[in-house]
Write a structure and sequence with these properties.
globular; 273 residues; 16% strand; 2 domains; four-stranded parallel sheet; six-stranded parallel sheet; 13 helices; 10 strands; alpha/beta; single chain
């Protein structure tokens, strides 16, 4: 049993955005090992069809299973929205996404029952955040907005750039007229722009970071399933990173945002899984 408890958590995303989820797991569950996969060859997921996202997710899950993971986190809002329910049925280990934890916290903390959600076109178009929030409280109004340009800007490293700020302002114009008091950062890239969002929406709007909420949900899941690691992470490389393309670029980006020195990222042929 102990060997299962000491097995790693599998975390996957369409690219680098899911590193914000990995970062929260590192901070909040320091005893846990992580195997991270970023699908950098096929990013972005936000413009792809549901069938394609499910196919990609299945391939990645098959790869993560070869790494003997004890649980999986879909650290991608698009894949959480479109593939989670489908792949969950096929798995014999626990799997969670990033949508439900964020939706739950937003529904519980809104004061005026008006919540904004920003994400990729696929996430916004799935209306999953709206469905989950309204199932918790049908009186809440949810306004969704696709912000397709933000992921490429983050991946370009333009986190504190005036162009990025001006793009965010333009996207949020309509939302701010809706009197929202809560904004869900419904894409794992967006927490990296948190300070800019904060500046634009002001103090009266609560920003919900699903990456943090997902780490908390993972903690509860591991405790509930008696899978939480009992040992300490003593080995030299407790976190392993894999991508489908551009390993060097991924490593540079990971080192700019993680509290851990990523020495090597391995590229794997994900289409073969």
């Amino acid at each position: 049993m102990n060997s299962i408890k000491n097995a790693p958590i599998g975390v996957f995303d369409s690219g680098v955005g899911g590193l914000t989820v990995a970062r929260e797991i590192m901070r909040n569950l320091p005893m846990e090992r992580i195997v991270y996969f970023g699908d950098t060859a096929r990013v972005p997921y936000g413009s792809k069809s549901k069938d394609t996202i499910i196919r990609y997710s299945r391939q990645i899950i098959r790869f993560l299973k070869t790494q003997d993971v004890k649980a999986i986190v879909i650290a991608c809002n698009t894949a959480s929205a479109l593939a989670l329910e489908e792949v969950k049925k096929e798995l014999d280990i626990p799997i969670i996404g990033v949508v439900k934890p964020g939706a739950k916290v937003a529904a519980e903390t809104t004061r005026n029952k008006r919540i904004g959600v920003i994400g990729t076109a696929a996430t916004a178009g799935s209306h999953l955040y709206r469905e989950l929030i309204c199932s918790i409280n049908p009186e809440i109004t949810v306004i969704e907005k696709a912000c397709s340009l933000l992921c490429p800007l983050v991946e370009e490293g333009w986190l504190k750039d005036e162009i990025t700020e001006s793009v965010i302002r333009r996207y949020l114009e309509d939302l701010m007229e809706e009197s929202i008091d809560t904004l869900i950062l419904g894409c794992t890239h967006y927490p990296l722009l948190r300070s800019t969002f904060s500046k634009i929406v002001g103090e009266h709007v609560n920003l919900v970071n699903p990456a943090y909420e997902t780490a908390q949900e993972l903690k509860r899941l591991l405790d509930r399933e008696h899978l939480a690691s009992e040992g300490t992470v003593e080995e030299e490389f407790p976190y392993r990173f894999y991508v489908s393309d551009a390993a060097e670029r991924f490593t540079d980006f990971a080192n700019s945002i993680l509290p851990y020195d990523v020495r090597i990222t391995k590229q794997i042929p994900i289409e073969e899984y």
